[in-house]
Design brief:
The protein is mostly helical. It has one domain (about 10-105). Helices cover about 85% and strands about 0% of the residues. It is built from three helices and no strands. It has helices at about 10-75, 80-105, 105-110. The longest helix is centred in the middle third of the chain and has 66 residues, at about 10-75. The protein is rod-shaped and about 115 Å long. The termini are far apart.
Length: about 110
């Protein structure tokens, strides 16, 4: 007759405990790996976002300033058109100064 040995309950509990410990260790290792990956990805994403904002602002400002400067440089300087622009710009500056000055010190303008 052949003898079959069945595992004892202590052996079965030890086997289950070993498997559970292996699962916990794997989970800890996975968390550490995910944390390291996130730590490495954050500076890269930050650099990408900063570069995107810079490039967008540069493109917009270049697209506005260059054509404006080109038109301004192509207009002759001594004529009624240019004098009107200069006088209008001066009047606008004075009005802004009045508005900002009166909102900052309302008692001075009342006296």
């Amino acid at each position: 007759m052949s003898e079959t040995t069945s595992p004892t309950s202590d052996e079965m509990l030890n086997a289950v405990a070993d498997k559970m410990q292996a699962a916990v260790d794997s989970a800890k290792q996975g968390i550490t790996t995910a944390k390291d990956a996130a730590t490495a990805a954050l500076p890269q994403a930050s650099h990408f976002l900063a570069r995107f904002v810079y490039t967008t602002c540069y493109t917009i400002s270049y697209g506005v300033v260059f054509p404006t400067a080109l038109v301004a440089m192509s207009v002759p300087k001594n004529n009624a058109f240019v004098q009107g622009l200069v006088d209008g710009a001066d009047a606008a500056k004075q009005k802004v100064d009045e508005l900002l000055g009166s909102s900052g010190s309302s008692t001075e303008s009342a006296h």
